[in-house]
Amino acid sequence: MQGKFTKDKNIYRKSFLIVFGILLAIALIGSLITARNLPKGLSQIAKKHNLKIGTAVSSWQLDDPQFASVLIRNFNLITPENEMKFELLSPAPGEYDFSGADKIIAFAKKHGISVRGHTLVWTNQLPKWLVNGNFSRDELIIILHNHIDTVVSHYRGQVSYWDVVNESLAPDGSISQDNFWMQHIGPEYIELAFRWAHEADPNALLFYNEANAEGKGLKADGLFMLANMLITQGIPLHGIGFEMHTGLGWSPKPDELAINIQRLADLGLEIHITEMDVRIIEPASLEDLYEQAKIYAEIVQTCLDATNCTAYSTWGLTDTLSWIPHIYPGTGSPLLFYGDYTPKPAYYAIQKVLEIK
Ligand code: 9MR
User: Fold this and answer.
1) Which of 33, 87, 166, 182 is the most buried (most CB within 10 A)?
2) How far is the CA of 81 from the centre of ligand 1 (A)?
3) C-alpha closest to that of 233 among 223, 244, 225
4) Is 167 a catalytic residue?
5) 243-269, pLDDT tens digit by residue?
């Protein structure tokens, strides 16, 4: 009696396992077919060009499932928009709160996304205790060294690229005097920052990031001279970030951008497009959006044509999350997705360029 019962139990278990196995196989095949039928996201298409596609994020945005899914599908590089800046990391002297930035890093790790660290040395978004602290030059050198060492060491092996120094140049291409670090340490703050970052993580690629120096002009020439000087002095500089904040009617001419990228390639430097957006005077018409798409396409095409342009990032995911309308009221619509995450003409224009080549 007991033997029959055990046998029956075994039969039940076996049939259960067979049915379960069949169901699992059906589910697996089903999801494979669905995955195959989904159009590829931008970063997947760009892989064949060895080009990373990036965007800027804030940790709170990652809690929105729709944001997260659009991000994961299209981007394999993220930059914390604010949460790695001095002011946000260090609420008091020597104190650090990495919670926001850590959340971004954990998300990136989970989804196989690379991270651009932004930014170690900038004159904006500095903590009040620092700016109002009346520190001597020697003290500020120690504070900056400690900051770079603390942050880069905390993320050693997890941040692939650092914007070490951000926007140090004046419009005429000289080192800007209107800069906290320049005023208190002098121009050597730039090379010191690169040396310290390299010591803290010798494997991270170190970038100098600049605005409005993408095409032809005094600032672009100043950037080239600075890069040349740093390289000649053996400073660990590996790449240049071109921010690429543009607008309808004022974006760099592709041939001038190409020449600028090439002379930096000749110095052995990589190029990342780091913060692209194309602002439009609101309300944006359909014609405006197509004009915007053309600018996005031109820049990505120029990047693909260059041998050393390895990343292409926008400064935010959707139009409603962009910094632009807050700082330049009356303008907006600068990014690749509408507020409801629908792709805009600019998205499809980039997709087309990436697919063709
Ligand atoms: O997008 C950032 C915005 O949320 C901040 O308020 C602003 C503060 O200066 O910084 C913005 O990001 C800047 C970036 O860090 C460096 N290049 C220019 C970007 C736009 O101002």
Assistant:
1) 166
2) 7
3) 225
4) yes
5) 999 999 999 999 999 999 999 999 999
